[in-house]
Amino acid sequence: MKIGVMGLSHSGKTTVFNVLTGLNINPTEHMKEKYFLGSVFVNDKRIDFLSKHYNPKKTTYPEIQFIDYNIRSQESKCLSPEYVAKLRECDAILKVIRAFENDIYPPATGALSPDKELEEMDDEIILNDILTIEKRLEKLNKAKHKLSNAEKNEFTILEKFLSILNNGEFLYKHEMTPPMIIIAKNYGLLTFKYEIVIISSDSVDYKMSSELKNKLESTKRDYAIISALEELELSELDEESKLEFASEMHINEFAKEKVVKQFYYGLNLITFLTTGEDEVKGWTIKKGTIAQKAAGKIHSDIERGFIKAQVVSFEDFESAGSMKECSKQHFMRLEGKEYIVKDGDLIEFKFNV
Ligand SMILES: Nc1nc2c(ncn2[C@@H]2O[C@H](COP(=O)(O)OP(=O)(O)O)[C@@H](O)[C@H]2O)c(=O)[nH]1
Ligand SMILES: [Mg+2]
């Protein structure tokens, strides 16, 4: 799972990125760096439990990777071609908009205006997709009389996309048929990627202007107000003082938990688990993934040579206390390729290569 951080210069991207990943990148010390990469490991009590039970050599929590593009201050536009190419590889987007005053680093839009920033970024990614689609349509149009059936279908789908985008709407907000999904993914269309808007402010009590509120509501956006500098200060404290001060700052949930939860929800993600003496590991998949595809997450050989999935739900394992006991109590199921994996399934894949 890879998430691209996007925003105008000085909108607070790197600060938010630091808060989420626990890194401590000072952009002024890394002027030559084009990207910063960081990971968030998703806390999961079930993995804690399994790790205690198996005492494995390694415990691996699901990982979400964040990419922060190191935009330079003279580039006010957020989308250079290079950046777009990077964003296309991402599964989702974290859009950071600035809602804090800071005289040393003035906002890219001149005066502080979170709703304008959001609008500017929305327009930019919509325009980017429009240009990508128009270029392809032009090419298809030139060969109009010798298009294959697949190309004809693609043409129709791209025209549909174009009409959605020309309406100023995002593709990810629209129902899509499987062929549409394939095409949107093939071209890495940016508005097809799920996104969360982060309103980066000095305090979580930030009062949004009615313009910003309307914009978020009318476009049905998922958003969170984050006070990144405050959270960075909190991260220096011991656990007890951290909670105490967080409560004073009205931070009832840390940015990392908030953002991870929102991405899981928005992207329809669930976790399945694999266990053993070597490793206990959580794997992230989309809700609705069939067992054979889930196997492919671990290794393409397991997907190809898939025979059966031996499945126990975490709750059953927890109550039975061991795999042996699960088997005795008939909690263990053998499922086929088409089995739809559930959140918290403990799976052992049987395969043949
Ligand atoms: N006052 C204030 N300053 C902030 C906040 N978040 C970031 N900054 C400062 O604004 C400047 C730009 O932030 P940065 O994260 O580098 O923005 P980027 O260009 O979007 O990556 C830095 O000096 C940050 O310390 C905030 O919530 N409040
Ligand atoms: Mg930055």
What does this structure look like?
- This protein has 353 residues and is of the alpha/beta class.
- It folds into 3 domains: 2-107 and 193-266, 3-Layer(aba) Sandwich (Rossmann fold); 124-191, Obg-related GTPase Ych/YyaF, coiled-coil domain (DNA polymerase, domain 1), CATH 1.10.150.300; 288-351, Ubiquitin-like (UB roll).
- Helices cover 42% and strands 21% of the residues.
- It contains 14 helices and 12 strands.
- It has helices spanning 13-21, 45-54, 81-88, 114-142, 149-166, 178-186, 210-218, 228-234, 239-248, 255-266, 291-298, 300-304, 314-320, 323-328, and strands at 2-6, 35-41, 58-60, 63-69, 92-98, 194-200, 222-226, 269-274, 279-286, 306-313, 333-335, 345-351.
- The strands form 3 sheets. Strands 2-4-1-5-6-7 form a 6-stranded mixed sheet, with helices on both faces.
- The two termini are 27 Å apart.
- The model has no long low-confidence stretch (mean pLDDT 94).
- Bound molecules: guanosine-5'-diphosphate and magnesium ion (MG).
- Guanosine-5'-diphosphate is lined by residues 7, 9-15, 27, 71, 100, 102, 105, 200-202, 228-229.
- Guanosine-5'-diphosphate binds at residues 7, 9-15, 27, 71, 100, 102, 105, 200-202, 228-229.
